[in-house]
Specification:
Length: 113
């Protein structure tokens, strides 16, 4: 249960801290505003519980494309650190059992699927 609460709290803190578009009070939430918001993927908690890694997706409406990068977040609070910044889609991160490595799925170069 504690693990689930930590994951949910981590996602909420991260999503609030990185939100790019913030509507003005009493304004209507438009489709344009929704496309400016960052989307946070499922987190993976490190074996020691000190950090979590998540994929964060931003959308470029003019290119009609989403870009996902990985972020490392300290669970006790503090600044998140961006781990990847390629135009590739980096998703589904998981810590290795010893916590030294992070495996993830990436679409690079001429990858079709």
């Amino acid at each position: 249960m504690r693990f689930l609460i930590t994951r949910l709290g981590c996602c909420l803190l991260f999503a609030c801290g990185l939100a790019q578009a913030e509507p003005a009070p009493n304004s209507v939430l438009t489709a344009e505003t929704m496309w400016q918001l960052l989307r946070v993927g499922d987190p993976d908690l490190s074996p020691d519980g000190k950090t979590a890694v998540v994929s964060v997706t931003r959308y470029d409406v003019t290119k009609n494309k989403g870009f996902s990068d990985l972020w490392l977040i300290p669970t006790a609070g503090g600044n998140a650190r961006q781990l990847t910044s390629d135009e590739a889609s980096d998703t589904d991160p998981h810590f290795s059992p010893d916590g030294k490595w992070i495996a993830f799925i990436s679409k690079r170069g001429e990858d079709k699927d």
